[in-house]
Amino acid sequence: MPDFSDAQLVEQICYEFKLADFNRGKNRSLINQLFNGWPPYSGAEVEENNIAINVNDLTGTRLAHDARSQLYGAFLKPGKFFSIRPDGGPKHKRQSWAMDGTDKINSIMKRSIDYFECYRSKLALDVLHGVGPAAWENSYGWCPDPVGIEDILIPAKTVLTMKNLPFFAIYRSFTAPELIKLTRRAERDPGWNMDLVEACLEWIDNETSALMGSTWPEVWSPEKMQERVKGDGGFYPADSVPTVDCFDFYYYSEDDQRSGWRRRIILDSWGTPSQVGGNLTMNRRPLKKELSSKRDIFKIQKSDFLYTSGDNYFSDSWRNVMSFQFADLSSVAPFQYHSVRSLGFLVYALCHLQNRMRCKFNEAVFEALMPYFKIKNMEDAQRALKLNMITRGLIDDTITPVPAAERYQVNTGLVELGINQNAALIEQHASSYSPNNNFTKDRTEKTRYQVMAEVNAMTNLISGAFNQAYQYQEFEDREILRRFFIKDTRDPECQQFQNCLLRAGVPEKYMCADAWESSHERVVGAGNQTLEMSIAEWLMGNRMAFEPDAQREILRKSTFTVTGDSDLASRLVPDAPSISSSIHDAQMAAGALMQGLPMALAQGVNHSEYAEALMATMVNELQKIEQGPQRMGTPEQVAGLQNIAGQDVNGQLIPGNGAANHIALLAQDPHDKATPKRLRDQLSKLMNLVKASHQRLVESQQAAAQQAQQSQGGGLDGKDAAKIAGMQAQAQAKVENMRTSHAQRTAQRRIQFEQQLKQQQEEHAAKLARDREEAAQEIARKRFALED
């Protein structure tokens, strides 16, 4: 692979690109004309064939609008473009990081009018030409720019994966503000040729004063000419803003240390009207100005680059430069870039034929409305023209009307059959984008199984086309995510995103795109409102068969389907605060620990949440003790609190499932020292309250013992006192045994209840599966019956 250090070599390749793409551009221009509403006959055809009616019936225009509407609904309707989630870090933090990151990045993207228009451009080009390109202007901004398919120059036989892509070019037109923004800043890329840049800006200033825009780039891009004619009515305008037109050329290179893509930018000199020797004499793109008595002449050397990355790599992958949204309906594999077949390409001939047929049909209709007379000479023609037949009139016997039986009769049945067949073919070919929802032609009420069958058919019809579009969008999402995570980025919106994650507590080591996954948001029904409503109706009808969390999600989706407003749906059906499994397990374990039952240390849980849940139970018990008359708990309460804490009042660890043991496991993480310290401080404050309660209990017991001794000294001998003490010990032991037995029975009942509940849930799930299987079999049976 050459190093492309010679601008003339780059220019030659770009010129070959333009020549090879010219015929493709003419075909694309025809598609654009048809779908823009241009009449089917050219001016020469109208004059040569004396055509009276030449109008577009807008079949293709309506078809393109319907297809775009469905694509817009599938990609732009959701409240977010894509979701992100970290694939590392503490498990209990990943969900909150994902929510913060997803909300912020989509908030920035949804506010961007540039990205909205880029999306609209890609989807519109997908409908007409099957390729929706976009490109990034620089190496750090997250938002791509829409690019016309004629401005992406790719070699022939390049596959859709771009695996065999050696080089490519993007045709760009810079206005003065765009060129200044790229080149006149402190952190300017050193690859810009500032002498050439300043000369181009000087030329723009001179041309802007006269508004002498150029239409030479349209010579090589028929699509651009069609758009100019559509906007200006065919007038070559003198009010267009002057631009510096360039070929942005990229080629793959590799050495011993690295591989990637290098960049070269050259001025478009082939679009200029004249060449002189080895230099290009032009009035648009100056480099060296030579004063002349007649006019200013500017010359550009063929070896001049507007920009060059030299031996440096501009990007690691072509995906860092451009992205594609493909809607390829081609049947021949392996699929190639220049072999993409779009909806516009496939229905062009049918729509064009339909337009011509309707023009001829309308001509026949007008002809049938005309009265004909038989004449013998021109005098008879003059008398026929003067005949007034509005209410009454006389006919000269020399003028003979031609009766209907003698006139040429159009075969109306054949005409209607041809028009209807063409309409059916167009609808059939376009069904992947705008399916026919009227499956039943009669007016009878549909059964539940008929509705399910129709929803099934629509889903299968649309899913193939939209799954391809969704999959290709994933690649652009990954590149946008990478740009949002560029370290020391100059894009202010990317800086806002990174600051948001840092405030949310995301460690610095996770501030890179490789540590995050993205998934594009998909809507129910792939953007088809009828299909979406049918699916939402079925989900709401069967909502009670799902889990509670799924029921809330179904309600939110159905609300969004009806309203079409994601923000309103989120407000009406907000996220319910969910309790994690670690918190739930800790709350269940707290009861057993409070009763003094031994428990092994729980593993595989969120130790931070587990410890906080145990300490929340301690807070509740301490509040009960503090609300008592003597602010003193029972010995069992004090012992249970120490068991939950995992340490006694003297600070000694108690082996088991206490909070102190979970905090000790958290302290083993060298990257997170703040969380264990915070939890230790909270536990220390709670243990101070437990210690105070224990102290009051000890003092109360000592006072009771002194009172008992005084009572014994007043009337009981040692033998009776010993007997009473023994009886008290037996009673205390009996109480402890009863308490332990009760706790064990309670735990057994809890385990038995949970097992019964789990068994019931499994039986319910099996029943739902059987019902779904029976419904599917019934649908298949009825479908086969209808086919028979």
Structure description:
The protein is an alpha+beta fold. Among the domains are: 347-429; 581-715, no CATH class; 730-788. 54% of the residues lie in helices and 9% in strands. The chain has a 5-stranded antiparallel sheet. Helix 17 packs across helix 18 (607-626). It is elongated, with a radius of gyration of 40 Å.
Topology:
Elements: H1 7-35, H2 43-49, H3 59-75, E1 82-86, H4 91-111, H5 113-129, E2 131-135, E3 145-146, E4 152-153, E5 167-174, H6 176-183, H7 194-210, H8 222-232, E6 244-254, E7 259-267, E8 280-282, E9 288-290, E10 297-300, E11 307-308, E12 322-326, H9 343-368, E13 373-374, H10 378-385, E14 400-401, H11 412-429, H12 448-484, H13 492-503, E15 516-520, H14 529-541, H15 548-563, H16 566-572, H17 581-594, H18 607-626, H19 635-645, H20 659-666, H21 674-715, H22 718-787
Order of strands, widest sheet? 4-5-6-7-11
Give the termini separation: 63 Å
Poorly predicted parts: 233-238, 272-302, 458-462
Number of helices: 22
Please indicate the percent range of residues in DSSP E strands (runs of 2 or more): 5-15%
As a whole number of angstroms, the C-alpha radius of gyration is 40 Å
Q: Describe the biggest sheet?
A: 5 strands, antiparallel
Mean pLDDT: 77
By DSSP, the count of extended strands is: 15
